[in-house]
Write a structure and sequence with these properties.
single chain, about 240 residues, mainly alpha, 2 domains
């Protein structure tokens, strides 16, 4: 596995991801509190956090556990709400084909919204695969460690923090902090606006399928916008040839 490891890039990825943990920690605390409130033991709550490593899936699982839902429903719901990672994986797969299988497994485990948003641009712009993978793993490792610390804090505070605080508001704030730096191109703004409108309009869909449909709508909008703006750019260059 050393053939794909670059210590400077790993440290750079960890350092660049540190600011993201500011928004992640309250989210992790909410998950820890939610798991305890649902009746999970501290060991089970921490084990879920370490293995699942997905805030949305953990919150949904905790809510369904508290409601007494069957195991099959809980697993299916978590699967549906995590389908966006298929889109992330599809975007990263072409860059990871030459990578050792063990490293691909590690990257897959550490794949999160924050890690993907932070690393995908680097994969597209830099041909240094060794540094890119190490950068991603460094950032993912920091997120995983911060998530466990936050979950433990939530588990310990589960019996103290009142439910009336409504800490769930930190979730959208966390995602907005990720998206804001990426909205510097017209196509990106169109993708964001399309997905946001679709998510709100389709919110009544069962099993949170609105997230997947909104993501697909954003992809279609992105392809169309890229073709339109790409043609415009080509038309502007041609007269000067």
């Amino acid at each position: 596995m050393r053939t794909h490891f670059s210590r400077p890039a790993f440290i750079e990825g960890a350092r660049d991801m540190l600011p993201m943990t500011v928004g992640l920690i309250p989210f992790g605390i909410v998950c820890g509190v939610g798991a305890i409130s649902a009746g999970a033991s501290p060991v089970a709550a921490l084990a879920m956090s370490m293995i699942v490593f997905s805030g949305a899936a953990q919150i949904i699982a905790a809510q369904l556990l508290a409601a007494g839902a069957p195991l099959a429903v809980i697993v299916l719901s978590c699967f549906v709400v995590s389908l966006r990672f298929l889109m992330y994986s599809a975007a990263m797969a072409p860059y990871l084909k030459p990578v050792d299988q063990r490293w691909r497994h590690l990257v897959a485990f550490l794949l999160t919204d924050q890690a993907f948003a932070s690393a995908i641009r680097r994969f597209r712009e830099s041909p240094d695969l060794r540094a890119n993978v190490s950068y991603f793993v460094g950032g993912g490792a920091v997120l995983w460690l911060a998530w466990q610390i936050a979950t433990i804090a939530g588990i310990l505070a589960g019996a103290v923090i009142p439910a009336s605080w409504q800490l769930e508001f930190v979730v959208p704030l966390c995602f907005l902090a990720i998206l804001a730096p990426l909205l510097h191109e017209r196509a990106a703004v169109i993708v964001f606006a399309t997905a946001a409108i679709a998510a709100i309009a389709l919110d009544a869909m069962p099993m949170r399928l609105s997230m997947i449909c909104a993501g697909l709508a954003g992809i279609v909008a992105g392809v169309v916008a890229d073709r339109i703006f790409g043609r415009s750019a080509t038309a502007e260059v041609e007269p000067g040839n």
